[in-house]
Request: fold
Amino acid sequence: MGLNQKVEMITGSGATPILVTGGAGFIGSNFVLDWLKTGGPVVNLDKLTYAGNPENLASVASNPAYQFVHGDICDAELVTALLRQHRPRAVVHFAAESHVDRSIVGPEAFLRTNIDGTFTLLRAAREYYDSVAGEERAGFRFLHVSTDEVYGTLTPEAPAFHEETPYAPNSPYAASKASSDHLVRAWVHTYGLPAIVTNCSNNYGPYQFPEKLIPLMIANALQGKALPVYGDGQQVRDWLYVLDHCRAIRTVLERGRVGETYNVGGGNQRSNLEVVTTVCALLDELVPESKFKPHRQLVKYVTDRPGHDRRYAIDARKLERELGWRAQESFETGLRKTVEWYLANAAWVKDVTSGAYQQWMAQNYAGRDAGGVSVAAKGRTIVASGESAR
Ligand code: NAD
Ligand code: DAU
Reply:
């Protein structure tokens, strides 16, 4: 039996694929795995940067409903050819450079992928949309996955970001995402492309690359390494379990209004220090034999991130009211699942933290020691500047 016949058997003859970009990254791979459970075919275009990992999708690699394309969203010819060939019913656009610290060290790649890449996709999607008719045209959607960071920063008492909050991006990453959101808006208003933007808060869960706060703290704590908390650790983020985010995207894709923006948030505002100490408490419980217990003694305050946004919080009431979505995971249950996943997938962590990862860690953290103070979270005992927390 040929591949095409197999695809037809599994997906049904009328099944039309979606084109996902960045599906080998953290949120993208969770989304692809989740989407395939309901049988819909997926074409995944990913450049496999340091953040993209085909291992995340190893369980579906031989599923005929899944097709991986190794390529760049900035490659206009490739993107155009994929749209012509697969005639997807939607483009779900995750691909991006996503780490704020890396955008501070080297913004170029962020401008290229997040702005030029989104522009390339929009241009190709418009051409494709203009070439189709009937149901294919009526049902087509371009869903752009964006971030709450485009809204800037909040004071402790300020109301959460809502869809009308003015844009005020503060990091090169946030500025590049804000630019891409504006491009999407322009393509809706000028060319009538049926696009929708989602702006979500900090995700956490399985397959997150351990440069981001939660997986970094888990990986470091398990090795007895310092847990680098930027500044005073009182910055607040609004945590969203990744599968709740995936469900939100599906909901918006199915029922969201064209041209609209939907904020997605977990309703879990926590200071960074709270997050880190909660991770430590979970590790104390789940790894009772650890010689680094209590893990919170590894906390080390280091020099702050330049331009560090103080607080993010998302008002997701529009998505709840209009489309009936609600986050299902509490921060406590989601974080426990996440820590358990990292404990059960030590080989995955080992694989992604070799090689270039070590260079990044040295580059991002070495300089922070000099100006920082070390503080044991418990009792906030200040020890000498530059001293290891171990
Ligand atoms: P990630 O860094 O884990 O993954 C990004 C993926 O995009 C990787 O697989 C990478 O290989 C791919 N990619 C990068 N450049 C590419 C290019 N030029 N062409 C094709 N593929 C390319 O990111 P993530 O955390 O999964 O975030 C996904 C999306 O969600 C991003 O757009 C990000 O801005 C947004 N977002 C993330 C969060 C979060 O907390 N992680 C929160 C809000 C919004
Ligand atoms: O808000 C949504 C955004 O969340 C997404 O758009 C980004 O793609 C995603 O990376 C994330 O950005 P943050 O900068 O909030 O995530 P990060 O995990 O890098 O940091 C979370 C907080 O923890 C932030 O206040 C910085 C702090 N931090 C981070 C690291 C890596 C530390 O204190 N120490 C660290 O070593």
Notes: The chain has 14 helices and 15 strands.
